[in-house]
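ok trying again, last paste got cut off:
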Amino acid sequence: MKMPLLRAEGIIINNDRTKILVQCDLAESFYRFPGGGIEFGETASEAIKRELIEEFDLEIDVGNLACINESIVEYDGKKRHDCTLIHWCSGGNKVKSPLIHNERTEVQLVWRNIEQLEQKITYPEGIIEFISSGSDKIKHLIVKKCYK
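nice, full thing came through this time. structure:
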């Protein structure tokens, strides 16, 4: 089994809290929050900032921890246990979407409202309900699945 992977992602919400900046493929077959792996010695906040600059030339402000997502999955005989620290973020208001990834042109950032996010798969599972609830308590989402 591989070592657990520690990731950080940001929920970037516009000023009037009507849209969220999400990462997806060009067909928008799914949505997820931008971010990536946390490097040794780096905080989750630092990782979010670094990843957004590297991938999209985007500088944002990272706020409080919103959610911890543990993903414990098995697929094709491989086991993974990933932990993602998801933070509230701001400062993306001037972003014109789509914003194309610097290295992977099939990946983009787009503004979507909650209703649009509910229409497709949004990772991690349960995050849209959490955001819609307006709760300021840190949420712990756990996903355990076995794919054959």
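cool. The chain has one domain: 5-147. Strands lie at 5-13, 20-25, 30-31, 35-37, 61-75, 78-90, 99-100, 107-112, 121-122, 139-147.
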